[in-house]
Every structure is written in structure tokens, then in C-alpha cells.
Amino acid sequence: MKKWSYLLSGVLIGAVVATAGSTFADQIKSLVGEKVAGEYAVKVNGNSLAENAIVVDGKAHVPLRAVSDSLGVDLKVDGKTIQITNGSADTKSVNTASTGKYEGWPKEKLNGRKAELEKYLSDTEKDRDKAVSDLQKISNMNTAVSDDILAIRNETKKNTESGIQEAEANIEKYKAELAEINAALIK
After folding, report:
1. How many CA atoms lie within 13 A of 101 on its CB side?
2. In DSSP terms, which residues pair with 58 in a beta bridge?
3. Tens of pLDDT, residues 23-80
């Protein structure tokens, strides 16, 4: 008799959970499976965002995180609530630069972005230096090898040189962005 009561309890609990789950899912409007009718480029204060807006069901859906970051406002997701604030009420902490993509950013957010970029810059410089060292090792290898190994070495050398060029381009980009942030912090 005890087995039957456990079985019946399990079936009842399963039915309740399954019904509650489908009822909850019906309450949430989902865009999954909807057809994207088009894409729009998004510009904030004249600066284009890397991410595009999409049009679904006649409504434009913009990348909120990218928009809030470009406006220099804080975005926080708290449960089912998205909170957008402009930092602090203290007007002295808000950047008042009149140009650049950091216009209106709070100083604490500028300092946070600066720290991120400095880490990216440091990591990229280390990666570049390691790639330069690897390239020197590849170049100093014994040339008396088979054609297959020579082809692999040449391909590796080419890939390493490409990686070095990419790292140097990123380093320049990070340095330029750091200069913009430093200029915004001074104003």
C-alpha cells in the first residue's frame, strides 16, 4: 500500500509542476522563432555601435547594454527588473567632456574602463612579446628538414607574424582609447 501512495504522490507532484511550468511560460512573450524583418545600424551621439538593432513584429529591439555603455549610464539587471541610472547624483563626478565617445560618463565608470584597457594592453603586449620570441625560435631552427616539416614551419611562421601584426594593431587601439579616457578624466 505504501508503494501505491508514493507512486500516486509522485504523479500528482509531477502534474502540478508540469502545469505550473507551462502556465508560467505562457506569461512570457518570447521572440524565439519570430522572424527578423530587418536590421538597423544604431548611432548614439553620432557614434555607431558595433551591434545592430533588429526589427521583429514591427518593433525595433536595440542592444541595451551597448546603448547604455555608450551613453555612460549604469545598467543593472535585478531579477526581472532592468535598472538604468546615470551614476550618481553628484554632478562633480560626471564627466562633462564635449567630444568623444566618453561624453557624459561618470568618473568611476571611466576609471573602471581605464583599468580594463590597461589589463588588455598589458596582456596583449605579453602575448605579442611571446609571439616575437616564438618567431625568433622558428627562424633559428635547423633548415635541414623534410619538405613537409619545412611547409609546416613556414605556415607557423606566417601565422605567428599575422598574430604579431594583429597584437600590434590592438595595442595601438588600446593606447588610443586610453588616451581618450585620460583626456575625458582631465576635463
Report:
1. 17
2. none
3. 545 545 666 677 777 777 877 766 676 677 777 767 777 777 777 777 777 777 777 6
Structure-block grid coordinates of residue 28: 512570457
- What backbone torsions phi and psi does residue 102 show, to the nearest 5 degrees? -100, 15
DSSP string over the chain? -HHHHHHHHHHHHHHHHHHHHHHHHHHS---TTPPEEEEE--EETTEEPSSPEEEETTEEE--HHHHHHHHT-EEEEETTEEEEE-S-S-GGGB---SSSTTTT-BHHHHHHHHHHHHHHHHHHHHHHHHHHHHHHHHHTS-S---HHHHHHHHHHHHHHHHHHHHHHHHHHHHHHHHHHHHHHHH-
